[in-house]
Specification:
Elements lengths: L8 H9 L9 H11 L14 H104 L5 H4 L4 H16 L3 H32 L2 H11 L5 H12 L9 H16 L6 H26 L6 H26 L17 H21 L5 H30 L13 H27 L4 H42 L2 H4 L13 H20 L3 H22 L6 H21 L2 H14 L9 H5 L9 H8 L8 H7 L1
């Protein structure tokens, strides 16, 4: 039997005992080595005779050694297990301590956040208080300066640099304009001399400014013209500045044989530059066109017709027709080249077709008719006669006058895509409301006592209700179309003024503006419309219309912002723009509108916040309730949206 090839039970036991040795243990190889090392342990064919007793003895000794080794290793294992259990307990204890520390830190973080919010509120409040203190202080300083300048006029000697330095004509104009307003409030007997001096200086500066404007126009310096025009805006001579501009624009303008084409080219040229000079370009251009028609063209037409008025009637009529056709053609050319609403006859040109004088006369005559009816009618005929008078009043006041004005006003509302549209329907609304209040007052004061106890009362009330519903329907339609036109005007402003580079500037470190030009112009337009709505309506109607306009305004800005990609600095500029839009929203005094813009402002923060803080910002108070798709749509507008880091943090 070959012990090197046969696996014995002892070898299996050795394998079990030595399984924990550092190196892999193979029992067969171990026994093989042991047999060959033992004298007499080889096969019968070896050099030394096989000695089983000696081999057995060697096996027994090795088994004992292995048992000792096994016990030693077992003790080591037990020691390691105990050490491991001890370290596990210590680790668990440390984890519990860290969890407690984390809870304490989180609680401190919440307290710190609340404290920061409290401090921020206090800072804002303090800022408001400082502003409240600083504003009167600034006014006091300004008043002190004005008193100093006023004293110079009292003394008769102007020493201040603002009056003696010709380069400070702008500052001098501001001072003299304020002093002129103050002087108008002073009694003439005590301050006649100083009032005269201030008025003289006012006139001199006004003349200097107009002369400076004239010189700048001759030199073609648009920026200087704009600067001087802005100063003159607060002077009485501002209209004279416009007249000078119109006069100089026409110098050398009529060089062709076709005066109508010359006029069209002139209007087109002025239209391109007038917006860069005056704050009211439409009014200036309209005055130019009026000047061209009433002076130049009227004189030309008169001269052309005078030649054949008495001598040749047929030629006179032919010339009249040709000239009329050429005025009409000129209007079309001007409209095409300037986008001014000179166009179709449906344009009301600001006429409301409502006359309070006519209304008062109608109501006065109706009042007298009711009084005569009361005195002269038999009691049985009184309700019927009063009803007939009321019917006539409804026919001529409500239908012939108010309803006609509403229909004409509706037809005159421009389409929502019209540019520079003049919105006169709100003027119609204002006057129609005033007239109807007078009508309603007469109904209650003079008609009701005559029919209150008769069946005619229900007929009158029904007729009045029908009239009101018809008018309200047309008013609602007109207001809705007017609001659409307002939004259309804002769209035109944004499309013309907003540039892609506004929100993704080429030089991130050289952005000097606080908000974009498009934002400024939209805010100016919105504030004008809000003021017009407040002046045109009363009661809850104001809030209803302003809320509708505010919601549409918010939707427009929201969709507009979705069209651009934003760099970090561009995102900051977008936030500034929305902050300005939010200031406009405050003028509405409608909580819902302000809330919409607050939320939009919070959404814009997603354009600039660090990727690590995106989830925290999205879970904030203002954004937590929004759909995730809305949040994602704003994050997608970031120029760095495709970066793996941003995508990972927002996923």
């Amino acid at each position: 039997m070959d012990y090197a090839r046969e696996r014995s039970p002892c070898a299996a036991r050795i394998h079990r005992r030595c399984s924990l040795l550092p190196e892999p243990f193979v029992a067969d190889e171990y026994i093989e080595r042991l047999v060959w090392r033992t004298p007499g342990g080889g096969s019968r064919g070896g050099s030394e005779a096989f000695d089983p007793k000696r081999l057995l003895e060697e096996f027994v000794n090795h088994i004992q050694e292995l048992q000792i080794m096994d016990e030693r290793i077992q003790r080591k294992v037990e020691k390691l297990e105990q050490q491991c259990q001890k370290e596990a307990k210590e680790f668990a204890k440390k984890v519990q301590e860290l969890q407690k520390s984390n809870q304490v830190a989180f609680q401190h973080f919440q307290e710190l956040d609340e404290h920061i919010s409290y401090v921020a509120t206090k800072v804002c409040h303090l800022g408001d208080q400082l502003e409240g203190v600083n504003t009167p202080r600034q006014r006091a300083v300004e008043a002190q300066k004005l008193m100093k300048y006023f004293n110079e006029f009292l003394d008769g000697e102007l020493k201040s640099d603002v009056f003696t330095n010709s380069e400070k004509i702008k500052e001098a104009a501001d001072v003299i304009q304020k002093l002129h307003l103050i002087a108008q409030e002073l009694p003439f007997d005590r301050f006649s001399e100083v009032k005269s001096k201030i008025a003289s200086k006012y006139h001199d500066l006004e003349c200097q400014l107009i002369q400076e404007f004239t010189s700048a126009q001759r030199r073609g310096e648009i920026s200087r013209m704009r600067e001087v025009a802005a100063v003159l805006l607060h002077f009485k001579g501002y209209s004279h500045c416009i007249d000078v501009y119109i006069k100089q624009c026409q110098e050398g303008a009529y060089m062709r044989n076709d005066i109508f084409e010359d006029a069209a080219i002139l209007c087109q040229r002025v239209n391109k530059q007038v917006g860069d000079i005056f704050s009211n370009p439409e009014a200036v251009l309209a005055k130019l066109i009026q000047n061209v028609f009433e002076i130049k063209l009227q004189s030309f037409v008169k001269d052309q017709l005078e030649e054949c008025r008495k001598s040749d009637a047929e030629q006179y009529l032919k010339s009249l027709y040709d000239l009329y056709t050429s005025i009409q053609d000129l209007k079309e050319r001007i409209r095409q080249r300037t986008n001014l609403p000179l166009g179709p006859s449906i344009d009301t040109h600001g006429e409301t077709f409502l006359s309070q004088e006519v209304v008062v006369n109608l109501l006065q005559e109706t009042k007298q008719a009711f009084e005569r009816c009361h005195r002269l009618s038999d009691p049985s005929d009184l309700p019927r006669n009063a009803f007939r008078i009321f019917t006539i009043l409804v026919e001529f006041l409500c239908i012939e006058h108010i309803d006609y004005a509403l229909e004409t006003g509706l037809a005159g509302i421009p389409s929502s895509d019209s540019r520079n549209a003049n919105l006169y329907f709100l003027d119609v609304v204002q006057q129609a409301n005033t007239i109807f209040h007078l009508f309603d007052k007469q109904f209650n004061d003079h008609l009701m006592p005559l029919i209150s106890s008769s069946p005619k009362l229900s007929e009158c009330l029904q007729k009045k209700k029908e009239i009101i519903e018809q008018m309200e329907m047309k008013l609602d339609t007109g207001i809705d179309r007017t609001l659409n036109c307002m939004i259309g005007q804002m769209k035109h402003i944004l499309a013309a003024e907003q540039k892609k580079t506004d929100f993704k500037p080429e030089d991130e470190n050289n952005v000097l503006i606080q908000y974009t030009n498009a934002c400024v112009k939209v805010c100016v337009y919105v504030r004008k419309q809000v003021e017009k709505i407040k002046n045109s309506m009363d009661g809850k109607n104001v809030d209803t219309v302003l809320m509708e306009l505010g919601v549409r305004f918010h939707r427009l800005i929201y969709e507009h912002l979705q069209q651009y990609s934003y760099s970090c600095m561009g995102g900051m500029l977008a936030i500034c723009d929305v902050a300005e839009y939010r200031k406009c929203a405050k003028d509405f005094k409608i909580p819902m509108v302000l809330h919409l813009f607050d939320t939009l402002h919070a959404l814009c923060n997603l354009l600039v916040v660090a990727p690590d803080n995106l989830k925290q910002v999205c879970s904030g108070e203002q954004l937590a309730s929004l759909d995730k798709n809305i949040l994602h749509s704003f994050v997608q507008l970031r120029a760095d949206y495709r970066s793996a880091r941003l995508a990972r943090h927002f996923s």
